[in-house]
Each structure stands twice: as C-alpha cells, then as structure tokens.
From TrEMBL:
Single annotated GO MF: hydrolase activity
Keyword entries, A-Z: Endonuclease, Hydrolase, Nuclease
Entry-linked InterPro entries: Restrct_endonuc-II-like (IPR011335), Restrct_endonuc_IV_Mrr (IPR007560), tRNA_endonuc-like_dom_sf (IPR011856)
Domain of life: Bacteria
Protein name: Restriction endonuclease
Restriction endonuclease type IV Mrr domain sequence ranges: 209-329
Coiled-coil blocks: none
Amino acid sequence: MNYWLHRISHHAELSYPLLETGYLSIGFSDMINNEIIDKVLSNDWDYFNELFQMTWRSIPKTRFNLWNFLKMAKGDLVIVPSWGTFFVCQIKEERPVKIGDAYFDGLKTWQGKPVTRHEDRLISESGNIFDLGFAWRVNVLHEHIPRDKFADSKLTSRMKIRQTNANITDIKDSIECSIDNYKNNKPIHLHSKLIEKTANIVLDTIRVELNPDKFEKLVKIYFLAIGANEVSIPPKNERDKVGDADIVAVFEHIKLIIYTQVKFQNGELNEWGTSQVLDYKTNMESIDDGYNKVAWVVTSGESFSVEAKRLATENGVQLINGLEFSKMLLNAGIKLLDSDL
C-alpha cells in the first residue's frame, strides 16, 4: 500500500462535491480516453510522453501529476488537504475512470448549480466544460481533520508542497499517527495549544500596533527568518508592470520564488488581491530562469471571500488570513518578533 498526497487543484466548486460523494478527481480533460489509463497502468512512459507532445505540443513537468494520479492503486491511502483541514481517503477500485463515469443525476456545484454530462465530459449550467478528466472511486474515511491539532510537523510540512500530488509513503508512520490521534481524539497538545492560545494575542497586537507599511515589513522579516536569501519590495510604479506583488522572496537553495500580496485590514478580503498577485506571477513565469514561482496573499483580516477562495484554488494561490499568519510567525520563532519595525 502506498500513501499519497493529492491536492484539489481544478474546479473546487465541483471537485469537492464529487469527493463528498466518493470520487477523487484531477484535471487534464483534453487527455480523456481509456487507452491512457491502460498505458499508464502498464508503465508505458513512451506512450504517455508522446500523447502530451501530440496534444499539447510539449512535454511539461505537470504531466507527472496525471501519471501519479493514474498510478494510484486499490487500497492506497490518499491525504487531501483542504482549508486548514485534510481528508483521508482510500482507493476502492482496481482502476481509475473517465470523469464522465463519475457523473450521477442531481450532481451540483458548491453553489447549487446543476451539472450535466456530454459524452465523457462534465458541463456547467452555462455550457462550459469543467477541466476535469479522470477520477478514482474512493472511500472517504475521515473528513475535515484539523491540521493544527492532529497533523505532526512532517505531515504538516508535506501538505504545504505546491505540486498537485506526490507519493508520501516515506512518512507513513507520521500519517498513521496523525490519523490515530484524530480517531482517539488526542490532539498534539503542547504545540497546538500554545500556538492556538498565543496566536490570537499576536494577531490582536499586530492590528493595534502596526500599520500597512509595518505589516508589510513584518511579512518581509518572516521570509528572512524562514530562510529566504533575498526579499525585496518591487517598485509600486514599475513600468509595464502586470498585476502586483508587495513582496518577492527568493529561496536560492530550492530554486523557489514567492510573490506575495500583503493586506493590512480587518474583516473579509475580496478577490482583488488574489487576482493581482496571480497576474504578477503569471507574467513573471514568462521568464525562463529555472525557478519555481508561487503566489501568496497574506492579510491581517479574518477571512477571504468565496470568489477569492475559488480563484486561489483554481490557480494554486496560497491564502493566509491573520490568525494563520500569526501561527506561522510563532512557528518560525518568537525571536523574529523582536525585530525593529
């Protein structure tokens, strides 16, 4: 049995309702056919690469996400991260199916909008095709397990990886321990309780003592504390700039750049910040410099709008509210809070 991490990265508004009914899905709707399933299950890597070359005119790194997904097997355990929680699912069939085979009468999106099927594809109420190609029939063993209470440091760290999926069998002991703790209602006491109780104090202090510029500087200090080699603030009036990022953090050793929008405010943050940093990241991805590029939105506020969450889920943007950022500060080390803001 293998252990997998699989992130809902396409059409959350439909993928989560499918998961709740026992289907774990992935994108790649332009690859739909039974032959690709047969070829991957028989380890035909040449066919797999040739299909991408023929369909996309390239052989992208993201193809590994589809390969991993189709290579899951009956009995495998799958961890599915969600907003501050995670699901535990188990593959229940011998092979995956085309997404059309996961359709059932009455299927609806999060917003209650009906979904129909046309041949092998699922269609929205407005006639658009959902970019979902394949699914596994799963048993949802546990749902909405709080990360900060039951996921230890190894599992928590692994759930932060940005790719859609990965084989995480190497931390199976950590996974099983986290599941057992949840089943027996034994949260990770000291760490989770200290963080949970202290984070609200940190957040209240941030809101009272800081201003937008100082909060932006605090985010910059956080990136330096967790190992960024360089952290810069792009010019606000940068010529020909597309989108916007308040902070650019470069992690040289792992070839990673994080573009971050920083919002000092209370309440709910709408999709504007998410859209701005996504546009900035998308524009910067045209530069072939060998770095992986991801986008964050950090706010001192309480939450994000439904539209912001949808946009972030569909495009891999990390949304971090004030309480979550306060926990990140505490996990990074209390000494960084001594910095002169």
